[in-house]
Amino acid sequence: MDQKFSDVLKKLRKDKGLSQQELADSLYVTRATVSRWESGIRLPDVVMISRIARILDVDVNMLLAAAERSDDSPNVILVDDRKLILKSGLPVLEEVLPSAKLAGFTDADEAVKFAKANRVALAFLDIELRDTSGIELCRKLLDVNPHTNVVFLTAYSEYSLDAWNTGAIGFMLKPITTEGVREQLKKLRFPFWTGGEDV
Fold it and tell me: What residue ranges define each of the domains in the chain, with the CATH number in brackets?
């Protein structure tokens, strides 16, 4: 049976007679980082995987294949009642989050229904929605899953103070840009595998 990256790494490390701290020291990362890899909470990026392969003296392709099997692509949603924002914003999110499963919604209730059926890692929410507010939608999404990272989108900066009282991690002025999204990823309260940097 194909093993996940976390199990493969733990076995290879132990076979080499290394502690988590010794492996961490060799890779110039913290022991906590190695622990997160071995518990399956995080995955190292491709550069780090090749360093691990060198230190453990194993085929990098075997580790990459194990990482691919472990990659539970995160669900990322964009909610805005204007289709134009979805049409322009989703390609930006796809560029920055290549491993994510992306979904766009113009209706807040549909977004909540989706969140109940799928664990949402990151939600970009327009503050002014047709039948509700993004702030109310944020509360509903966090009721479904308190580990959802929420970023508010708006064209009006005066909403930012209200937004901070909801448990959201960030606030972006429209339009959605790659730089803006990358900046928000640095603030994730509940990190996840993005398909690129080990955020």
Answer: 5-70 (1.10.260.40), 75-185 (3.40.50.2300)
